[in-house]
C-alpha cells in the first residue's frame, strides 16, 4: 500500500480541479477523480464539494457501510495536525442530559421525601380521628 500523504486544508482547496478531484471527510483526504462517474449519488454532488470539507454532506446523506468501505479505495492522505478539526459526535437521543437528571432530583414530588411526609401526615390524622 502506498504511503499516505499529508495535506494542509489550503493545499486540498488549491490543488483540486476536475482533473484531480479531492475533498476532505473526517480529516482524511480523498481523490475521487476516477469515482465521479461511478458515484451512485451522481457526479454533481461530488463536484460541489471538491476542494472542501465534505464531512457534513457525507454524514447527512447517511451513507451505508458499503459506501464507507468503498471510501478506503480513494483515501490518498490525511490532513496535517495543525489543520485537523474535532468533529462533534451526535448525541444519543436516549441519554438524559445532566440538567434533566438534576431537575428530577430537585423536585420534591419526585424525591423520597414526598411519600415519607405523606405517611407521617396520615399517621397524625388517624391518631387525631381515632383518639
Ligand atoms: C469517497 C466518498 C464517497 C463514497 C465512496 C460514496 C459512495 C456512495 C454510495 C455507495 C452511495 C449509494 C447509497 C449508499 O450505499 O449509501 C452513495 C449515494 C449518495 N451519495 Fe455518496 N459517496 C461518497 C461521497 C459523497 C459526498 C461527499 C456526497 C455529498 C456531497 C455524497 C452524496 C451522495 C448522495 C446525494 C447519494 C444518493 C443518496 C440517495 O439516493 O438516497 N456522497 N454514495
Helix-strand layout with pairing:
Elements: E1 5-7, H1 9-15, E2 22-25, E3 28-31, H2 43-48, H3 55-61, H4 65-71, E4 75-79, H5 98-106, H6 113-130
Parallel strand pairs: 1-4
Antiparallel strand pairs: 2-3, 3-4
Bound molecules: protoporphyrin IX containing FE.
How would you sum up this structure, described in words?
Helix content is 41%, strand content 12%. The longest helix has 18 residues, at 113-130. The chain folds into two domains: 5-83, Flavocytochrome B2, Chain A, domain 1 (Roll); 98-130. The chain is of the alpha+beta class. A four-stranded mixed sheet has the order 1-4-3-2. The model has no long low-confidence stretch (mean pLDDT 87). Protoporphyrin IX containing FE binds at residues 30, 32, 39-41, 45-46, 49, 54, 57-58, 61, 63-64, 66-67, 70-71, 74.
CATH homologous superfamily caption of the largest domain: Cytochrome b5-like heme/steroid binding domain
Tally of distinct domains? 2
Low-confidence parts, pLDDT < 50 over ≥5 residues?
Answer: none
How much of the polypeptide forms β-strand, as a percent range?
A: 5-15%
Amino- and carboxy-terminal Cα gap: 91 Å
Mean pLDDT comes to 87
Radius of gyration: 29 Å
CATH top level class name of the largest domain = Alpha Beta
Strand order in the largest sheet? 1-4-3-2
The helix content, as a percent range, equals 40-55%
Number of helical runs?
6
Write the H/E string, N to C.
EHEEHHHEHH
What ligands are attached or bound here?
protoporphyrin IX containing FE
**What is the β-strand count?**
4
